[in-house]
Automatic annotation (TrEMBL):
<keyword id="KW-0547">Nucleotide-binding</keyword>
<feature type="coiled-coil region">
    <location>
        <begin position="10"/>
        <end position="44"/>
    </location>
</feature>
<protein>
    <submittedName>
        <fullName>RAD55 family ATPase</fullName>
    </submittedName>
</protein>
<dbReference type="GO" id="GO:0005524">
    <property type="term" value="F:ATP binding"/>
</dbReference>
<dbReference type="InterPro" id="IPR014774">
    <property type="entry name" value="KaiC-like_dom"/>
</dbReference>
<keyword id="KW-0175">Coiled coil</keyword>
<feature type="domain" description="KaiC-like">
    <location>
        <begin position="69"/>
        <end position="185"/>
    </location>
</feature>
<dbReference type="InterPro" id="IPR027417">
    <property type="entry name" value="P-loop_NTPase"/>
</dbReference>
<dbReference type="Pfam" id="PF06745">
    <property type="entry name" value="ATPase"/>
</dbReference>
<keyword id="KW-0067">ATP-binding</keyword>
């Protein structure tokens, strides 16, 4: 049986690991900056200045170059190793079709690998989001306390309740879209300065469209997506199907790199991938739920697009 001392030791160890990962991430970012500088100097002077090859460092043990895990192993297989870095991906489907489970596993996987996550919520209780993620993570360490999980709570004030998190950045909501964008950009800058990289989640585009003038929707989303891409982030945006006209969904797709679409067909659930580069199949693939995650049925490799 674990003692309080064991718990404190574990917490301290995790904090040390998180701090080391911050230092590594900052070093990687500095190396990239220097490589860009040397490349520019080489072009100007015709020189052949070089930085020695970088060591093969794998943060948390499972890094595929240019990819990051979705949190669902079989989906990573379908995507040929994970989601490209950077990417803006919309998770689209009816409520409770599986997109929420994918989002939670994406968050949990990141935190387990000491990669910070910035979550913006405009129509979901952030306490519920965190609770669902913690069911996957387990353990007693609070990722908000360690800085690996950061919320921008744009929901609580709109329903006139107190934010359930003392660590959250509380926003007035989407109606003042200029201030909303500045709040997100400031938080992402802080993530980059402290960690060197991060993942980004948006709950949900459905709620955002409901609170903003339609003519400002695409402008706001375009800024958010382009800014996250420039920060080398992998970003997921949740969106319910069957709520708006088709042109609204097409507007969202316009600024995305791809989508994972979910559907419910009687008693079965399916997903398919659109965009997202080279994948093993673009057919509808059955989802089998288990616990807090899901698996995928077989996909036909003869139908690669």
């Amino acid at each position: 049986m674990d003692t309080p001392e064991d718990g404190e030791t574990l917490k301290t160890a995790r904090e040390i690991i998180a701090d080391l990962d911050k230092q590594i991430n900052r070093a990687v970012q500095e190396r990239r900056r220097l490589e860009s500088l040397l490349a520019a100097l080489n072009m100007d002077r015709g020189a052949s200045l070089q930085i020695p090859p970088s060591p093969d460092i794998s943060l948390s043990g499972t890094v595929i170059p240019g990819k990051i895990s979705s949190g669902i192993p079989k989906l990573d297989d379908l995507l040929n190793g994970g989601i490209d870095i950077p990417s803006n991906i919309v998770l689209k489907g009816p409520p409770f079709s599986g997109k929420e489970i994918l989002a939670r596993n994406f968050i949990a996987k990141s935190i387990s690998e000491n990669i910070p996550v910035l979550i913006v919520s405009v129509d979901k209780d952030i306490g519920k989001i965190k609770s669902d993620v913690m069911k996957i993570l387990g353990g007693s360490v609070d990722p908000e306390e360690t800085g690996l999980l950061k919320f921008i709570d744009a929901y609580s004030k709109t329903v006139q309740i107190q934010s359930p998190s003392k660590h959250a950045i509380v926003s007035e909501g989407v109606s003042n879209y200029s201030l909303f964008i500045k709040t997100i950009d400031a938080a992402s800058t802080d993530m980059l300065e402290n960690y060197g990289n991060f993942k980004f989640l948006f709950f949900t585009l459905t709620g955002m469209i409901s609170q903003i003038d339609p003519k400002f929707f695409i402008k706001t989303l375009q800024h958010i997506a382009q800014k996250r891409r420039s920060e080398n982030a992998v970003s997921l945006y949740l969106m319910d199907l069957g709520v708006f006209d088709d042109n609204v969904y097409e507007s969202a797709n316009y600024v995305m790199d791809g989508e994972i679409e979910f559907r419910v067909d009687f008693s079965k659930n399916y997903l398919r991938v659109r965009g997202m580069g080279n994948v093993k199949s673009r057919d509808w693939i059955e989802i089998m739920f288990h616990g807090n995650s899901f698996d995928l049925g077989s996909f036909d490799l003869k139908r690669v697009h």
